[in-house]
Amino acid sequence: MPASLDEAVAALTAMPAAVPVAGGTDLMAAVNAGLLRPAGLVGLGRISEIRGWQYLDGHALLGAGLTLARMGRPDFAALIPGLAAAARAAGPPQIRNAGTLGGNIVSCAPTGDTLPVLAALEATVVIAGPGGARREIPVSHLLTGREMLNPGELVGFVRVPLLHAPQTFLKATGRTGPGRATASVALVLDPARRSVRCAVGAVAAMPLRPLEAEQWVASLIDWDGERGLVPEALAAFGDYVAAACIPDPAPPQDGSEPATLPPAALHLRRTVAALARRALGRALS
Question: What sequence ranges are listed for the domain FAD-binding PCMH-type (predicted)?
Fold first, then answer.
């Protein structure tokens, strides 16, 4: 149970087979299911420096130990509303009280609610390494596996730009009330860059960014005016996002009849389209 981030890194360096644990909502579920038998655990619960946040050069530097429950409170929602909405939707109180922002990132579960928001915000992660080393990479690189944590490294902080711009997060679940997402959409308007950023979660192993749909709808918005769009444009954006994230099967090379999406995939595509349409509509309203 180290008391600082560097002590935790030293413990992991001394015992490479050990596993760091914060809230344990994913880790202990795997242990209890017999899927994981770690040689040791390095508890992060006593490291106060990663359990809060601070302001730095137009960004919020969020500690990886921030719980989902803490991020859901009104003061945090005033800071980063999209991330707060995702944290509030992350499950029942016992999960939100224990689960952490860093755990969401490192576990990288497809249904992790904070992940599409972080992707849409283009957040970066600050990684602590041996000898007091710090390096920073885009969160999308970590989520997609383009860059990985090295032995002895920990996610210490998440740097999020403070946009003071509309942010929305919506998710669909298979049942009423808190539950794992079958699909989720995070959307951010960035008036300074005149851009729309959208990320779709739970439909793939990592959040998906429909870049062409983002650019198309951003070109339709009157950034100097009321920023409204007609319902037909909102619907077209939803369909554009859904088709990009759940594309039609590739046509057969032998010239035979093209395959069609199974009913479950078509239902998921309609769900993503509805979420993207509503998210953009709320951001523009």
Answer: 1-165
